[in-house]
Amino acid sequence: MSDPTPSHPTVTPLRVLIVDDQPLVRQGLASLLDLEDDVRVLAQAENGRQALDLADELRPDVVLMDVRMPVMDGIQATAEFRRRNGPPVVLLTTFEEVEDMTGGLNAGAAGYLFKSAEIDEILDALWRVHRGEKVIHARVAQALAQQLRLPAHLEPSGALTGREVQVIRALAAGQPNKRIGQQMGISEGTVKVHVSNILAKLGAGNRTEAVRRAIDLGLLGEDTGG
């Protein structure tokens, strides 16, 4: 009598948390991923806050998350996952704005893909970030390469994105984070991420100093009045 032996080694399933505010999107992704023997969808969340709570409870290996969501968006949630030393995040979006790309990657995303990606591309990205790699869609890399063509006066610290310029101008006008977020259609947490990026790029220790340096660089020039 021979002992039964498996035909191939057992692979520990990759444990995934899906985050998207659109039920059809997250349910569709879950259905496709569940077809894979080596992937297990632990749960679905509709915003970043819910994702953080579920991740604390379920301990996923990787998070597949939308960028623009109510309550807490993907950029803010990604920054919080990084702060907590949480699982790697792959951001998945329909939008191609450079501000979203730089915001997500600066917040700590391990991957950045578009929702037009094939499921095999998404699966490959999930496994690769789980192994510690970075996965960035070619269009994202191209957009970021163009962003790195800096004006001479910004070369030491990096160019501000268009959205960061909007934020610094709002700060110069004395507006609080909540008001800035309302005007720009982003969460207060994402405004804080932009402010942190601005301080780092301008080498400023606080908002007042950042505004002063932005004035010196001519970033608050002709169209600050809107």
Estimate nothing, just give the exact number of structural domains: 2
Mean pLDDT: 83
The assigned structural class equals alpha/beta
CATH class of the largest domain: Alpha Beta
Helicity range of the residues? 40-55%
Strand and helix map with partners:
Blueprint: E1 14-19, H1 23-34, E2 39-45, H2 48-58, E3 62-65, H3 74-83, E4 89-93, H4 98-107, E5 111-114, H5 119-130, E6 135-136, H6 138-147, H7 162-172, H8 177-184, H9 188-202, H10 207-216
Parallel strand pairs: 1-2, 1-3, 3-4, 4-5, 5-6
Task: Give structural notes.
This protein has two domains: 14-144, 3-Layer(aba) Sandwich (Rossmann fold), CATH 3.40.50; 152-216, Winged helix-like DNA-binding domain superfamily/Winged helix DNA-binding domain (Arc Repressor Mutant, subunit A). It is 48% helix and 12% strand. The protein contains ten helices and six strands. It has a six-stranded parallel sheet, sandwiched between helices. Helix 7 (162-172) crosses helix 9 and helix 8 crosses helix 9 (188-202). The radius of gyration is 20 Å and the shape is elongated. The termini are far apart.
Summarize the structure.
The chain is an alpha/beta fold and 226 residues long. It has two domains: 131 residues, Response regulator (Rossmann fold, 3-Layer(aba) Sandwich); 65 residues, Winged helix-like DNA-binding domain superfamily/Winged helix DNA-binding domain (Arc Repressor Mutant, subunit A, Orthogonal Bundle), CATH 1.10.10.10.
